[in-house]
Amino acid sequence: MNINSIIEKMTEHPVLHKPDAETLRSLVEKNGVDYVSKLIQLREDKITAEKSDPYRHGYEPFHWEEADKLLKEKDELLILGVDIVTGKHIAVS
Asked: Fewer CB within 10 Å of terminal CB in the chain, N or C?
């Protein structure tokens, strides 16, 4: 099993990061190839589900908790940022 080729085939994701080669080797040594293959497939399935149905299968960013707290104090919240994929500036209000 070529660890590096497996990692290269894994889908990129901003939160569900690919494991590095050392971590993947360690997991295989401790748990076996079948177990690690199932973990990789679960990760890929989660990414696919998120793309097809982001509302039900997406994730809530860690900083959203702060936004929820601010919305309890104020009626409106303006969130500015940059789309990391396209590099375009975005604004949500």
From this structure: C
